[in-house]
Design a protein that fits this description.
- With 320 residues, the chain is an alpha/beta fold.
- The protein has a single domain (17-317), classed as Purple Acid Phosphatase, chain A, domain 2 (4-Layer Sandwich), CATH 3.60.21.10.
- It has seven helices and 14 strands.
- A six-stranded mixed beta sheet has the order 5-4-1-12-13-14, with helices on one face. The chain has a six-stranded mixed beta sheet with strand order 6-7-8-9-11-10, with helices on one face.
- Helix 6 packs parallel to helix 7 (242-249).
- Bound molecules: ligand L45E5XJ5 and SN-glycerol-3-phosphate (G3P).
- The ligand Nc1ccn([C@@H]2O[C@H](COP(=O)(O)O)[C@@H](O)[C@H]2O)c(=O)n1 binds next to loops.
- Residues 19-265 form the Calcineurin-like phosphoesterase domain.
Length: 320
């Protein structure tokens, strides 16, 4: 804004840009159920949450894009209906007047292999994996991690990454059911088959992106289906090698916020380096008529997540 005396000021109340967020829709055309621990799951209603999210995002007229943090359909979806269910959910995302950036979650992989999912979700995959970055404004860079890069689900049974994941699970989790954390202590409870890890090449790629964003004075937002900080989620939900990923991230002051899904009740923490970790509340666990989605206003010095209903609002002010 230019003033009469020639002094110009910046309007700090206006965001640089804004984007929509939603996670764990886990749609399936099946009756309501519950998680292993008894938390109710509303498989048919969750797509209505997404429908209301798209209406709200469009009504704001200011959102540049939206991000889906994974698990668009549920593992209980009958497998002959997987493709239809994915397309039903994508049709709803298409009603949003802007691009949607997707990531892969475990439930996506229970339904379809990676080579089917990646094109359906239009995930840019220059490295054959599902990690990528984009820059919606010169000041910011978004990094989308592939949390199931090393995983016992999604790759062919004879793929080296399946073997690597199974070896790790065998060494860390003695239970016959590799999804069971029984007997595992503390943070070791993350070594469950429904989680995964970021592989070596992806870690090197991440390091390169963070070097480049530092050179270009860009702030970085990390997006990952699996949470990266024990303060923001239960141990059972964490990325297997979250420490290795955070060791890379902590070398750079450019990273300000990490967003995740997967841990359905949501969470928030600020880590030892001042990075904000916000795990988003799941659409799947919204009882009929309730919602969980939001939009994020991005400023030079902070992010403001405005959540709807079960998604809590969070202001994340950067420490430097
Ligand atoms: N405390 C737990 C949690 C889960 N499991 C196993 O994981 C499967 C998926 O869990 P959901 O929460 O998504 O239902 C579940 O079927 C169990 O096999 C577990 O053993 N202990
Ligand atoms: O969405 P699910 O079924 O993979 O559940 C994930 C758990 O809530 C993580 O603790």
């Amino acid at each position: 804004m230019a003033l009469a005396n020639g002094v110009s000021t910046v309007d700090f109340k206006k965001p640089l840009f804004s984007f929509g967020v939603i996670t764990d829709v886990q749609y399936a055309d099946i009756p309501d159920g519950h998680s292993f621990l008894g938390v109710p799951r509303f498989y048919r209603h969750s797509i209505q949450v997404l429908q209301r999210a798209a209406v709200k995002w469009n009504s704001l007229k200011t959102l540049k894009f939206s991000i889906n943090f994974g698990d668009i359909i549920d593992g209980f979806c009958p497998k002959d209906k997987s493709l239809t269910a994915v397309n039903n959910v994508l049709d709803e995302f298409d009603k949003f007047n802007g691009p949607v950036y997707h990531m892969i979650g475990n439930h996506c992989l229970y339904n379809l292999p990676r080579d089917k999912l990646i094109p359906l979700l239009k995930i840019p995959s220059p490295y054959g994996c599902a990690y990528y970055d984009f820059s919606p404004s010169p000041e910011y860079r978004f990094v989308v991690l592939d949390a199931y890069d090393i995983s016992a689900i999604g790759w062919a049974q004879d793929h080296p990454k399946t073997s690597l994941a199974m070896e790790l699970l065998q060494s860390k989790n003695p239970n016959a059911d590799k999804n069971s954390p029984v007997g595992l202590l503390g943070l070791e409870k993350r070594f469950l088959m429904f989680n995964g890890a970021v592989g070596k090449e992806q870690l090197e790629w991440l390091d390169g992106v963070l070097q480049d964003s530092t050179k270009n004075e860009q702030k970085v937002i990390i997006c990952c289906h699996l949470p990266l900080d024990p303060g923001a989620a239960t141990p059972e939900a964490l990325l297997w090698n979250y420490e290795e990923v955070m060791e890379v991230i902590h070398q750079y002051e450019s990273v300000k916020v990490c967003f995740a899904g997967h841990a359905h009740k949501g969470g928030y923490s600020v880590d030892s380096h001042g990075i904000h970790h916000r795990v988003l509340e799941a659409a799947l666990e919204c009882p009929p008529g309730s919602d969980a989605f939001g939009h994020v206003d991005v400023y030079h010095d902070r992010l403001l997540l405005s959540g709807t209903d079960r998604m809590a609002s969070t202001e994340m002010v950067f420490i430097s």
